Amino acid sequence: MIITLSTTGGTPAEQIHDQIRGLITTRVLAANERLPPVRRLAADLRAAPGHNSQETAP
Predict the structure, then answer these.
(1) Of 7, 10, 14, 15, which has the maximum CB count within 10 A?
(2) What is the arithmetic mean of pLDDT over 4-9?
Protein backbone atom coordinates (compact mmCIF):
# COMPACT_ATOMS: atom_id res chain seq x y z
CA MET A 1 0.00 0.00 0.00
CA ILE A 2 1.43 3.36 -1.00
CA ILE A 3 0.47 6.27 1.24
CA THR A 4 2.44 9.49 1.45
CA LEU A 5 2.14 12.54 3.66
CA SER A 6 2.82 16.13 2.69
CA THR A 7 3.04 19.33 4.69
CA THR A 8 0.39 21.02 2.54
CA GLY A 9 -2.28 18.35 2.16
CA GLY A 10 -4.23 18.75 5.40
CA THR A 11 -3.70 16.88 8.64
CA PRO A 12 -1.95 13.52 8.53
CA ALA A 13 -5.22 11.84 9.55
CA GLU A 14 -7.09 13.53 6.68
CA GLN A 15 -4.40 12.59 4.19
CA ILE A 16 -4.41 8.95 5.30
CA HIS A 17 -8.22 8.83 5.16
CA ASP A 18 -8.38 10.39 1.69
CA GLN A 19 -5.68 8.14 0.28
CA ILE A 20 -7.20 4.94 1.68
CA ARG A 21 -10.58 6.01 0.31
CA GLY A 22 -8.95 6.60 -3.07
CA LEU A 23 -7.33 3.15 -3.00
CA ILE A 24 -10.73 1.62 -2.29
CA THR A 25 -12.62 3.52 -5.00
CA THR A 26 -9.99 2.73 -7.63
CA ARG A 27 -10.03 -0.91 -6.50
CA VAL A 28 -6.32 -0.93 -5.70
CA LEU A 29 -7.31 -1.95 -2.17
CA ALA A 30 -9.48 -5.05 -2.44
CA ALA A 31 -12.60 -5.71 -0.39
CA ASN A 32 -11.74 -7.28 2.97
CA GLU A 33 -8.02 -6.58 2.48
CA ARG A 34 -6.36 -5.90 5.83
CA LEU A 35 -4.74 -2.56 6.50
CA PRO A 36 -1.29 -2.49 8.06
CA PRO A 37 -1.08 -2.18 11.85
CA VAL A 38 -1.13 1.41 13.11
CA ARG A 39 2.44 1.26 14.42
CA ARG A 40 3.82 -0.10 11.14
CA LEU A 41 1.95 2.53 9.14
CA ALA A 42 3.25 5.25 11.48
CA ALA A 43 6.81 3.97 11.14
CA ASP A 44 6.52 3.80 7.35
CA LEU A 45 5.15 7.35 7.21
CA ARG A 46 7.48 8.64 9.95
CA ALA A 47 4.44 9.94 11.82
CA ALA A 48 3.23 9.59 15.39
CA PRO A 49 0.94 6.56 15.86
CA GLY A 50 -1.78 8.85 17.24
CA HIS A 51 -2.30 10.40 13.80
CA ASN A 52 -3.07 7.01 12.30
CA SER A 53 -5.21 5.60 15.09
CA GLN A 54 -7.82 8.27 14.41
CA GLU A 55 -8.36 6.73 11.00
CA THR A 56 -8.47 3.12 12.02
CA ALA A 57 -10.83 3.55 14.98
CA PRO A 58 -14.39 2.25 14.41
Answers:
(1) 15
(2) 86
